[in-house]
Write a sequence for this structure.
């Protein structure tokens, strides 16, 4: 027979195990808490829309993006071609739909690469100290200082016809430094907090301290730097495609604009050709900055509450910048009169 | 029952990896932050070395030989002349890579950036010094305007939080998420082609020669208005958002409450107390953005065919004019480094805390 002690352990242990099973989902939920506000959700919905278009591009596009039709050149939008046609009769809508794929793939792949490097370099250099930390920090600063776009232009011209993942890799390798710097600063401030000291005193291994104790506290910053890198990568990709530095065979929005500009669409007011791709880039940019606004307000609640408090005060006929009200929010329930507001 | 192993408790510390690396930061408390200054100087020297080394290797990694490209354009060059050209450009293959690297440094230290194949074998430094004033003048002016308007606007928006002015933030953010080249092309299509208010591209009219005359300066202003305006529109959002967010954080501080409780006029509290503290990060990013003036406007110069540094780099890359490409990249990197030093100095002057707590 087993001793009561082990029985005890066995009966006690499963009991916390069931809440921890449930709390896996609550934990997951709290890890994504920075997305749980109106702005972030709106941004995620727009982003999801474009991701769906990128996935189902083949089904959604009415024509092949490169189908030449010499009988229908420079046509304005019609029932057959919703967004008109190009100089050789290609369907602009199909090009925009297929172009989504390149933009989304490169944006996310570059951001994933950059974020992984940023986490590795930033967290490790923040947690360690001494020459290892300083060395990694110096590396980060070098990548911050070296100008990105000129370097990408020079590197991209090394390839004749680079595949999407090469572009994404180059953009990711150049764009990780800012995230690493922010993560390093935050890790350095976390390192001396009590719960980390306690984990260290418990003898938890470094791997566990970093993944279990630290990373959840860095999630908001990681998400923000991920979103920022996606934005930067998309803007860089479309800009480089527009400049013509990377002659990408698969269509993306920058390539369409390159053709439109080269064929004089801007001079001849062929708005159906140059407006949609640009508006799509702007829409993705807005979606991503909405997500970032949400994360900002989660990290720094003053950004949201300041405006709300001021509006609430104004409803009561008070001025947020008046000297008296600034020290009087406690008595705000007693419906202050106009005389108070001087 | 006995089959169940009571091993649900995890043994702690299976492998103690590097628990010992917990040395707390030691702070040297001297009046003059020599350690801080020294580490910054070391960092800048290291970055400069890294940038120059990258600069050295870039053309050697690229496909295609600059000289054979040049020969393809100019037929009547003898093979001996081609060899001489290779030697001139430091691209002769019979030298070891290390020897080439040393040669590159010795040329660089003498201020010799080589000759540009694209511009009829003129010295690179001469070609660059001709393009630099255009970029510095136009983009520098636009950056200062954008910084001033954005920061003052952000301070006012942050002060009048919760008012209708808040809606300016999403609008300017939207304008800064639009890809710049598209904004520029749209501006040309609307204001130059359709309305005819501004000329299309270039820094001055055809047939003009750069000189200090009223007519020429008028031309430059006329040609520069549209590029400058688009830069301001595209970059305003960042300044405004940054300043507004800092204002909201600062306005919650106790010293603001004290200042208001003392009965100071609102204007004093806004500009002398709140904005003065909120502007610190803005000034640092302003100094940093000065560095990107030189390199960050390649797209503007392409869209408006403006004869600046960025266009020089694009043309050099397309023509595989390595010496010019290296020279432009070096100028861009050095200007970013100088801007970083300026940012450090400005911050050390403005915020005494950095001198002590900078890690």
């Amino acid at each position: 027979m087993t001793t009561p002690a082990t029985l005890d352990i066995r009966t006690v242990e499963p009991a916390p195990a069931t809440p921890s099973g449930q709390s896996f989902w609550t934990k997951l939920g709290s890890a994504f808490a920075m997305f749980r506000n109106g702005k972030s959700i709106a941004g995620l919905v727009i982003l999801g829309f474009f991701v769906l278009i990128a996935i189902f591009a083949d089904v959604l596009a009415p024509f092949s993006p490169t189908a030449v039709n010499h009988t229908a050149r420079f046509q304005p939008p019609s029932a057959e071609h919703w967004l008109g046609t190009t100089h050789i009769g290609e369907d602009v809508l199909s090009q925009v739909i297929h172009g989504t794929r390149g933009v989304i793939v490169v944006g996310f792949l570059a951001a994933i690469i950059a974020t992984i490097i940023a986490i590795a370099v930033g967290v490790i250099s923040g947690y360690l100290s001494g020459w290892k930390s300083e060395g990694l920090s110096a590396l980060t600063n070098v990548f911050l200082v070296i100008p990105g776009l000129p370097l990408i232009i020079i590197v991209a011209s090394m390839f004749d016809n680079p595949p999407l993942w090469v572009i994404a890799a180059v953009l990711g390798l150049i764009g990780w430094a800012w995230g690493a710097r922010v993560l390093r600063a935050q890790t350095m401030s976390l390192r001396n907090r009590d719960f980390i000291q306690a984990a260290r005193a418990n003898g938890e291994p470094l791997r566990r301290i970093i993944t279990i104790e630290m990373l959840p506290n860095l999630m908001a910053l990681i998400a923000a730097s991920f979103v920022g890198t996606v934005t930067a990568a998309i803007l860089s990709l479309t800009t480089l495609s527009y400049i013509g530095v990377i002659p990408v065979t698969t269509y993306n929005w920058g390539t369409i604009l390159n053709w439109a500009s080269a064929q004089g669409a801007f001079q001849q007011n062929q708005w159906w050709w140059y407006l949609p791709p640009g508006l799509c880039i702007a829409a993705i940019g807005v979606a991503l900055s909405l997500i970032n606004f949400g994360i900002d307000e989660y990290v720094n609640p003053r950004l949201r509450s300041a405006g709300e408090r001021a509006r609430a005060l104004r409803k009561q006929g008070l001025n947020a910048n008046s000297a008296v009200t600034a020290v009087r929010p406690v008595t705000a329930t007693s419906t202050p009169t106009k005389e108070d507001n001087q | 029952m006995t089959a169940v192993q009571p091993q649900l408790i995890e043994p702690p510390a299976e492998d103690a990896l590097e628990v010992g690396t917990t040395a707390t930061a030691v702070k040297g408390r001297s009046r003059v932050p020599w350690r801080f200054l020294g580490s910054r100087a070391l960092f800048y020297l290291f970055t400069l070395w890294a940038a120059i080394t990258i600069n050295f290797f870039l053309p050697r990694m690229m496909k295609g030989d600059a000289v054979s490209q040049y020969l393809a354009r100019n037929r009547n060059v003898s093979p001996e002349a081609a060899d001489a050209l290779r030697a001139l450009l430091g691209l002769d293959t019979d030298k070891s890579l290390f020897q080439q690297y040393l040669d590159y440094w010795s040329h660089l230290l003498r201020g010799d950036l080589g000759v540009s194949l694209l511009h009829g074998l003129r010295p690179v430094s001469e070609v660059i010094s001709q393009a630099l004033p255009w970029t510095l003048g136009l983009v520098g002016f636009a950056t200062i305007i954008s910084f001033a308007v954005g920061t003052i606007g952000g301070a006012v928006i942050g002060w009048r939080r919760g008012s209708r002015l808040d809606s300016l933030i999403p609008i300017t953010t939207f304008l800064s998420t639009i890809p710049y080249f598209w904004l520029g092309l749209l501006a040309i299509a609307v204001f130059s082609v359709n309305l005819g208010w501004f000329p299309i591209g270039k820094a001055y009219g055809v047939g003009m020669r750069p000189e200090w005359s009223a007519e020429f300066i008028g031309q430059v202003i006329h040609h520069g208005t549209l590029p400058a305006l688009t830069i301001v529109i595209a970059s305003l959002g960042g300044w405004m958002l940054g300043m507004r967010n800092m204002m909201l954080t600062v306005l919650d501080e106790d010293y603001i409450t004290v200042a208001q409780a003392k009965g100071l006029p609102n204007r004093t509290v806004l500009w002398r107390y709140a904005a003065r503290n909120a502007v610190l990060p803005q000034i640092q990013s302003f100094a940093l953005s000065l560095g990107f003036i030189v390199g960050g406007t390649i797209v503007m110069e392409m869209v408006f065919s403006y004869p600046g540094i960025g266009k020089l780099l694009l043309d050099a890359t397309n023509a595989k004019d390595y010496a010019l490409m290296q020279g432009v990249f070096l100028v861009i990197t050095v200007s970013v480094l100088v801007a970083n030093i300026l940012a450090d100095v400005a911050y050390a002057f403005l915020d005494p805390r950095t001198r002590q707590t900078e890690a």
